[in-house]
Amino acid sequence: MAWFKKTKKPMTAAASAKASRVPEGLWVKCPDCSQIIYNKDLVGTMNVCPKCGYHFRINAAERLRTLFDGEWTEYDKGLVSTDPLRFTDTKAYTARLKAGFETTGSKDAVIVAKGEIDGLPAIVAAMEYGFIGGSMGVVVGEKITRAIERAIDERLPVVIVCCSGGARMMEGARSLMQMAKICGALARLDRERLPYIAVLTDPTTGGVTASFAMLGDLNIAEPKAQIGFAGPRVIEQTIRQKLPEGFQRSEFLLEKGMVDLIVDRREMKAVIASALRFMGVAKSSPAAPSLPPAMPPVEPATTT
Ligand SMILES: [Zn+2]
């Protein structure tokens, strides 16, 4: 007989160790510089580490709060996926949708709203990573497309804050079709000469990068955000080569010309507002639309 018996079960990893990087509790440890930060201090810094500038992931509602002046009007809040393929992997897709709703309070992975950024009216779509990894399914595609169409009708600029793992596998080809649908709407927005700014946050990957995330008149990234199509491990295994330092990070992409600017979250609103002003967006007045109507296309001069 053993002298000592283990009467207690071994300690298991805390439940908080799973996916979410959104800080919870009174104190939070910065994953980058290991500084222990008082949670309330993070609220004041928009969830950016005051010591090293690490950007904690924030949810879609918080994102809108950092960008809009005050209240905003949300659109298409009630749209839900119908689970067209009746998909089940380790869990039924309907159960994943339900869990996503329970953790985020949102019915899909994007919030679309109209509000004012530093006095300038704009339509903003903010993606919600907490909802099935911010994946783009039929609902995300439809909500963003409607947002762009609304912007065309009301002659407003569009800002899309990307935070996504890519297309939603559980909706198969239908999720992939959203890429073309949104890009088509953006092309119409472009033809109407209305500005579109893409904000790339950690992570922006897969079908989102391969479509609207890279199509902004201005593509702005947050510092050290992971931005790419396939994950680095997959690429490494495919090409059998070691990837360079900082691969798929904002700074690397800026150097290679894939993004235009890297902006700290605390300055994001001011930078977007000044860019919109530069692009001709004026403060809202009830009488006039914010942007002048599109000019007729200029016929190229023919030389014969
Ligand atoms: Zn830090």
Describe this structure in words.
The protein has 304 residues and is of the alpha/beta class. It has helices at 39-44, 60-67, 93-104, 138-154, 172-191, 206-209, 232-239, 250-255, 265-278; strands at residues 27-29, 36-38, 73-75, 110-117, 120-127, 158-164, 196-204, 218-221, 261-262. The strands form two sheets. The chain has a seven-stranded mixed beta sheet, sandwiched between helices. The longest helix has 20 residues, at 172-191. The model has no long low-confidence stretch (mean pLDDT 91).
Briefly characterize the structure.
31% of the residues lie in helices and 15% in strands.
What are the key terms here?
304 residues, alpha/beta, seven-stranded mixed β-sheet, two-stranded antiparallel ribbon, 9 helices, binds zinc ion
Rg, rounded, reads 22 Å
| Through-space gap between termini | 104 Å
Strand order of the largest sheet: 3-4-5-6-7-8-9
3D shape: globular
By DSSP (H or I, 4+ residues per run), the number of helices equals: 9
Q: Decide which structural class fits the backbone.
A: alpha/beta
Write down how many β-strands occur, each being a DSSP E stretch of 2 or more residues: 9
Beta content comes to: 15-25%
Whole-number mean pLDDT: 91
Helix-strand pattern, N to C? EEHHEHEEHEHEHEHHEH
Bound molecules: zinc ion
* Sheet with the most strands, sense and barrel status: 7 strands, mixed
Into which percent range does the helicity of residues fall?
25-40%
Give the SSE layout.
Elements: E1 27-29, E2 36-38, H1 39-44, H2 60-67, E3 73-75, H3 93-104, E4 110-117, E5 120-127, H4 138-154, E6 158-164, H5 172-191, E7 196-204, H6 206-209, E8 218-221, H7 232-239, H8 250-255, E9 261-262, H9 265-278
Parallel strand pairs: 5-6, 6-7, 7-8, 8-9
Antiparallel strand pairs: 1-2, 3-4, 4-5
Helix pairs in contact: 4-5
The structure holds zinc ion.
Zinc ion (ZN) binds near residues 32, 33, 35, 51 and 54.
